[in-house]
Each structure stands twice: as structure tokens, then as C-alpha cells.
Amino acid sequence: MAEQPLVGASSSTPLDYRQEADVTCSRRDSQGRFVNPWSTWHFPSYTTVARLFLTEKNNSKIPSAKEALDRELPIVQPYFIQNPDQCGQTGTSVRATWLGHATVLVEMEGLLVLTDPIFSQRASPVAFMGPKRYRDPPCTIEQLPRLDAVVISHTHYDHLDAASVTALNSRFGSALHWFVPLGLAEWMQKTGCENVTELDWWVGSRIPGHDNVSFFCTPAQHWCKRTPVDDNKTLWGSWSIVGSHSRFFFAGDTGYCASFKEIGRHFGPFDLAAIPIGAYVPRGIMKSQHVDPEEAVQIHIDVQAKASLAIHWGTFPLSYEHYLEPPARLREAMVNLGLNPDDFFTLHHGESRMINLKDMHSSS
User: Fold this and answer.
1) 222 labelled ligand-binding
2) Is 157 annotated as a binding residue?
3) Which of 90, 268, 322, 352 sits CB 3.0–4.6 Å from 264 for a disulfide?
């Protein structure tokens, strides 16, 4: 069975915010499927999706030559392969290692947390077709350090990869704790995962023995689907991880909506946020479900992030913008708003950054 959220547990921080007047709770339609409760959600018809993908020009221009990709998007060996003794040794700081797409290894408060793990070559239910990554993972699952928790944002194949889940479970077993949105625990358990905590928006839980860190499922504007008949039967979300000394926000996969201001009011400021910046063209398809760089900066502002890591770009061919456009537009957006562009940064695949509370720009 899935672990129950620690609602009402003795704590200085409440673990259930759903009764607060200023938060947007999850909602379902008459068929029991989850819906996006914001006016910013306007998902196009399948006819419109097909028309735009067929008629709009694909400007992604991803090089076929490995040399060009190595030059523009280098893959570096993560620090933890050569220096495993340094893992988890961050004190009151937060360290993030980008492992590609939305997969980030986060170290905070002595815990090692992995977000939306995908180590497979394709974001697909099958190995012979579907989006194929053009930048390999910088490490294997066997090379990962000890993990305490994994957070999953939603069920799309580039965020919930069955092979990666199975491999992580095979390696870490019951020592690994999985935090997932409503409706996903059954799938996780069928995959073999044991310690699964399924949460609604604005509800939090903890890992036994680590009462100083709470994992809150928070809203995002997106959708779920893995089969022809399971549309939105599971919830999607972001994650707000709140510790005694540090706070981390994982946006997952999202369009822009009003709830990011709510998240900032309740859980901000965050020492670090991981926010998507890619897969936003054709805009007529992507706007409701994927933020562009300018909207990513607005999320950075809304959640009151002291620093943000750009994710969801440079790994899979999912959209039509030039493959190097997202970080360029991100920097331009920060500058245009008078913000320090180094406060919303990109990393090479496998690269780490330590977010020190005294020095926000020191690198590991």
C-alpha cells in the first residue's frame, strides 16, 4: 500500500494546506478525471495539433555530428563519480547536478533527491520509436550515489520512464522513497516500488527519520497520458521541498498559471528552483503546457527563487525552436527585467552547482 501523507502530524509546519483560502486545490470533472482549474489552460484540439506540427517550420536544427553537439552541449562526468565521499556534504547549502532534461540530483539537508529520472535513450513506451535523446545521460543509474527520494511530476514518458524506475528500484529497493501525485501509486507499486507516498496538491509528507524535511506536492498547469484511455486519470504537479535551513522548488513540466505566486507566498523564498525553459514551439500547441523562457523567468520571480536552474531543454527533440534558443532567450529575459542573469543559470550535462546561502554563485 502507498504510505499515507502525514496530515496533522506534530510539526511546526502544517502538512495540509488545502483548507487555506488562497490556494488552488486539485479538481476533477464529472468522469473523475483531473482538470486544470485556471483560465490560462486552453489545450488545442488534436486537429489543431496535427495542423500546426505539419505546417509550422521546424527550426530546431539539431546537429547530426557528435563533434558539434560536444562543442555546444558538452557532457561532463558528474563530480560524484570521482568523489563519492562528497555526496550529501552540503551543510546548509543546496547542490544541484543536472543529468539532462528534467532529471536533477539535489542535495540538501543531508538528503539526496532525484527528480523525474530518465536514463533511457527514448522518451517512449517502446525502444524503437519516439523522441530519441541527442545528448546521453552523463552517468548510469549504477553510478549514482545513494539516493533517499525520487519525486515524479507527472506520467509523460519524458518524465516517468519505466525502465529508469525499474532500474532505480532494483538498485535501491525499500531504502528509496518515491513521492508522486494522486493516482500514480498503483502504477509505481506494479513496477515494484515499495515506499510510495501519493499526495494531492498542498499536502506534504516526510521520510521516516528525516523530520526536518517536508515534501509538498504543489500545483502545475499540465496534463497526463500514457495510454489511449488514461487521459488525466492521475494528477500532475510541482514539488516544494522544505527543510530547516534550505528550500528547493521543482516545477516539473508546466504552462504558466497563477499558482506559482501561491507557492511563493506559502513556501518561498526558495534557495534553488529547477524551472523548464524549452519545448515551447509551435506556440499554438505548447503555450498551455510548456512555458517559454520569458514565462520561466516569471515563475522564478513568483516562487521567490534566489537562484534557478534551467531544465527541460537540450536533451530530447520535442519541439520546433532552435535547440540553442532557450538559454539565449532566458538570459535576454533576465536582463530585460533588470535581473542578474546569473541568478537563473544553465549547466552542462553532468555539471553541478553549489548554492551557498552566503555566495549564490559559487560552483562545485
Assistant:
1) yes
2) yes
3) 268
> Which residue matches cell numbers 528509496?
176
Domains of the chain (ranges; CATH) run 72-355 (3.60.15.10)
Is 322 annotated to bind a ligand? Reply is no
Report whether 253 belongs to an annotated binding site. yes
- Annotated ligand binding at 154? The verdict is yes
**Rounded to whole angstroms, how far apart are CA atoms 7 and 17?**
9
